[in-house]
Amino acid sequence: MKLSRMVSNQNGVSRKRANALIATGRVSVNGKVCRNTQHDVSEFCAVTADGDVIQQARPSRYIMLNKPAGYLSATVDDIHPTVLKLIDPALHEDLHIGGRLDRASTGLLILTNDGNWSRRLTEPEIKIPKVYRVTTENPITADTHQRFSDGIWFEYEQLTTSPAQIEVLDEREARITIYEGRYHQVKRMFHAVGNRVTSLHRERMGRIQLDDELTAGEHRPLTAEEIASV
Ligand code: URA
Predict the structure, then answer these.
(1) Where in the chain is the domain with CATH 3.30.2350.10?
(2) Which of 67, 75, 122, 160 is the most exposed place for a label (fewest CB within 10 A)?
């Protein structure tokens, strides 16, 4: 929401009056004077006018989990344990997952209560790189690099995946970078070239790297730098 609208709504003043308050330096966002009427403010911002609270900041939470296999990337499920089982219950409220992993997949999973932030992390149009380490059933063929970089046609979605990079590490092992997060994307890409993924581990999303201090099942809050990188 624009700052002008928030001040006007919450303070019960006209838009014109709100703009005047902002322009004359009487409104602060997160403790700093903000004179930009079009500044975007979310529920996570503290807003005051002349020192009076217009909006109290809702605490935001950003969590990195090293997901073990066997846990569902969901917040509720009747059959399988969900990743929330691994997170301190005091942190659960309004958490959602920023980029799911399949139940058998492991590695970097991010949970947050900040929807705008997680959208930036996952929206295919924003093209944040997601890096996975995969092992495959069959040897990785010489044409895989070209096929992934040309993009793979996904019949169900009627689209071609964005060019992806593959770094072959061994006969059946590779690091792959994709820029979307379509359903079972990596598995479907390998399937399209006649192979099968037997294990998949996410190492990185954008500039957020899975912390190697976290053993499977452990989590920690993201640092301010990691949050700001998205
Ligand atoms: N691609 C997949 O196929 N599975 C995942 O869990 C993530 C990306």
Answers:
(1) 62-224
(2) 160
